[in-house]
Amino acid sequence: MKKENVLVVVLIMIALGGVYVYNALPTATTSGGHPAAPSARVEKTSAFVTDATANTLSDQPGSGIAWKDYTPGMAQAKKSDRPVFLYFHAPWCTYCTKLKQTTFKDTRISDYLNKNFVSIQVNTDNHKDLATKWRVKGLPTMWFLESDGEKVNSLPGYVSADQLLQILKYIHTRSYTTMEFQEFVKQS
Q1: If we measure between CA atoms, which residue out of 108, 115, 104, 112 comes closest to residue 158?
Q2: Are 161 and 102 in contact (CB under 8 A)?
Q3: What class does CATH assign to 3-20+62-187?
Q4: Residues 45-76: pLDDT tens digits?
Q5: Is the CB of residue 42 less than 8 Å from the CB of residue 186?
Q6: CB-hemisphere CA count at 13 Å for 77?
């Protein structure tokens, strides 16, 4: 089996594990024990998106992910010779919100991304052309690219901070060119 296929299978298994864990977690409820109204979830999501935008404008350690827009981010990656972390999301996407509230808030993730990658986020509601170009079928979707824009691999769905950190290290160190992901994890 090709290395790319093995990596895809591993990444899908990780994503499915994340979905299982997410679904096993209790949902938000009202004081009466009933599920929270969708409007309450939307308000909470909107507030989070505003907070996330305000907190991710700096490259300082612990300050959040320094997100770039698509075109300037791709240019910066090429110029700086750093790989690209390309994140597709939408405001209505539950798993995107969970990813932002948990995985992306982890300082290990934000610090590692800011130091070793150019991080680009694309709102698919506003940039349908880019979602089509990158064949985004579901959200969230993360692409890992070489600095010149060459595709390494994609990861659909939610992933925990521990899982994403392993994947980022695998991509950043270019270990995918010499070993399978399982071997990399064993050596880590």
Answers
A1: 104
A2: yes
A3: alpha beta
A4: 333 333 333 333 445 556 699 999 999 999 99
A5: no
A6: 26
